[in-house]
Design a protein that fits this description.
disordered C terminus, globular, 11 helices, two-stranded antiparallel sheet, about 55% helix, Glutaredoxin, three-stranded mixed beta sheet, disordered N terminus, mainly alpha
């Protein structure tokens, strides 16, 4: 009964105040086991469930570094040269993936998340080639050749450097990988919470909380704190109607 009441309250709150969308920046590495674990087990399922509430920014660079030599950019990556290539694949995918005409209900952002989730899972298999095409076929990405050409060109280096600059803007170097920053601001407590329960961390940053947050610890008190405001809205609506 309490859950049903809270669900109705949550729906009414969203109806009155509208959906909130919080920007989340995920700083990660293409061959990092901890990054793969977070993307596959936390980020991917939560991002799909909270699509209307999450503005996701993927930043594939991690603890890498770079230096410029003339027009060239030389990268040194946390897990070796193969990771530098993998990071470029991710950067190029984020840049070039477009929605498919035969999947009109799947957005560019949806496809990018599906592709990155596949890349992170398959790259951990360490079976030789980076799974650029395998994942493109699996997720039905039309632009895999563009992504591959980008990763093998100066464009890939330019895009990865941009992700490096974005990473340095947050921390140089990152304290840990992956790093999750809400509203592009690092918070140690939210970082720990995100790694343990990204769902709970996201819900903590949403106000009003959507119905998907009802299973998260502390959700009842968070929603209940809005009751006073909701009652006021109801009173105003009632006055206007009668």
């Amino acid at each position: 009964m309490l859950r049903q009441s809270l669900a109705l309250l949550s729906i009414f709150t969203v109806a009155c105040y509208g959906q909130t969308k919080v920007p989340v920046y995920v700083y990660y590495e293409s061959l990092c086991p901890d990054s793969a674990k977070f993307v596959n087990e936390q980020l991917y399922p939560v991002a799909k469930a909270f699509k209307a509430n999450l503005e996701l920014h993927l930043v594939p660079f991690g603890k890498s570094s770079y230096e410029t030599q003339g027009s060239d950019v030389i990268f040194k990556c946390h897990h070796g040269e193969n990771e530098c290539y993998g990071n470029k694949v991710h950067a190029c995918a984020i840049q070039h993936i477009q929605g498919n005409s035969f999947q009109p209900n799947i957005s560019r952002e949806d496809l990018t998340l599906e592709y990155v989730n596949c890349l992170m899972a398959r790259a951990q298999l360490k079976d030789g080639q980076f799974p650029t095409k395998i994942c493109a076929d699996e997720v039905k990405i039309e632009q895999w050749q563009t992504i591959q050409e980008c990763a093998n060109s100066t464009e890939g280096s330019t895009l990865l450097k941009q992700h490096g600059d974005a990473t340095y803007k947050l921390q140089k170097p990152l304290a840990s990988v992956p790093t999750i920053a809400f509203k592009q601001t690092y918070d140690g407590e939210l970082q720990k919470l995100s790694l343990n329960s990204f769902r709970q961390a996201l819900c903590k940053n949403l106000s009003p909380q959507p119905i998907q947050c009802l299973d998260s610890p502390g959700s009842a008190s968070a929603i209940s704190s809005s009751i006073g405001a909701i009652v006021s809205v109801v009173a105003v609506l009632a006055a206007l109607m009668f």
